[in-house]
Design brief:
single chain, 153 residues, alpha+beta, Nucleoside Triphosphate Pyrophosphohydrolase, nine-stranded mixed beta sheet, 3 helices, 46% strand
């Protein structure tokens, strides 16, 4: 029974960044997917979420981020490739030392999306997109929880 749980479900801790520069927001997209997501990735053992965000953005884009500041958290539960996933996204605002970014990982594309296009851009998780849009307006720390078939906050 324990083995089935371990192979069919996972709980993940993810560090995400909201990087805005000159009226554009930095987003990532899997090359085989239609949706964008906020840059960042998994927090490794013995690493804090801020360190993970800095490492992940450097690995994905070659960019260095500074002035990271916690702005919110979002739980997300969804199915992917036959697995049940439950992730906790720790979200930071961050500055970038240079807007020149590279695509350093074969499976990911990064892009600067104009803030004027933010609302119509397909970004997952949906509730995180909405919470960040609200944060851009009021600068209030947020929390949310979303399941594939419903929202808790």
């Amino acid at each position: 029974m324990q083995e089935d749980f371990a192979t069919s479900r996972s709980i993940e801790l993810i560090a995400r960044g909201v990087v805005i520069h000159n009226g554009k927001i930095l987003l990532c997209k899997g090359k085989t997917f239609d949706n964008y997501y906020f840059p960042g990735g998994h927090v490794e053992f013995n690493e804090d979420s801020r360190e993970a965000l800095e490492r992940e953005i450097k690995e994905e884009t070659g960019a260095v981020i500074t002035d990271t500041r916690f702005i919110g958290a979002l739980e997300n539960q969804f199915g992917q490739n036959g697995m049940e996933k439950h992730e906790l996204n720790i979200v930071f605002e961050a500055r970038i030392t240079s807007p020149e970014i590279k695509n350093l990982e074969d499976h990911i594309e990064t892009a600067w999306i104009p803030l004027t296009d933010y609302k119509k851009t397909f970004i997952l998780p949906t509730l995180l997109k909405e919470k960040i849009a609200q944060w851009m307006q009021d600068k209030q720390v947020f929390f949310g929880s979303e399941k594939e078939n419903g929202r808790l906050a």
